[in-house]
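User: Show me a protein chain along with its predicted structure.
Assistant: Here is one chain, sequence first, then structure tokens.
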Amino acid sequence: MTRYAVGDLQGCDEELRALLARLKFSPDRDRLWFVGDLVNRGPASLATLRLVHALRANATVVLGNHDLHLLAVAHGARRGRSSDTLDELLAAKDREPLLDWLLEQPLAHAEGSDLMVHAGVVPQWTVALTLSLAAEVSAALRRDPTALFRQMYGNEPDRWDERLAGAERVRFVINVLTRMRVCTADGRVDISLKGEPPPAPSPLRPWFEHERRATRDARVIFGHWSALGLVRRPGIVGLDTGCVWGGALTAFDLDAERQPVSVPCRPHQRVGTD
């Protein structure tokens, strides 16, 4: 069995099909790990979600910020944005089974020494704590999704504190796992940064560069940060290679030391748009 981790799809159905063909994907022998952001910004969110859903017996998915945004809009907790490309999906006759399935997906997944999240992990969180906090959010999602989505948006609190509770705790966990790119060594996050990492000596650094982070003994697979492109470091695999911006869609073999496999993508959004 081969496990392929796949970068942010963002509604790029044709590119996903091309990548699967390039991999010679076989449901009899292969599994796919999707780092989140299955939908939005690209031209075919409905087709992409249908394809991943059809592959669900062979797929492990973690939720990204765009997936959560789709669910929030679908539950009436948030208005769509001008940059969204979700109308076809939201009007589809099969939206309910697709969205019900998406709602059931976790925010973090661990297997052996591998941990997959969409965005990152603050230095204070171990793998076990990350999974526990992700499970808390998933339980809240299933219990009352509309209430959670109404409380989800916002950048505060911006620092981890184990005493956080209620909506603040849920919001911080979601922001870390689905939106964060940089943080300080003591767990303060800056959600506003979206491009290149800040120059030294800023205390804000890419979350994975903090040497004493509690997940340093795991291999963390993530997406979300297209400005970085492919990231391959000891214990770190970053796979957002900017498909929706005209970059590439990339798959990484988690079980063999091989070069990642990529397919080129047509630009569907202008770089720099929010």
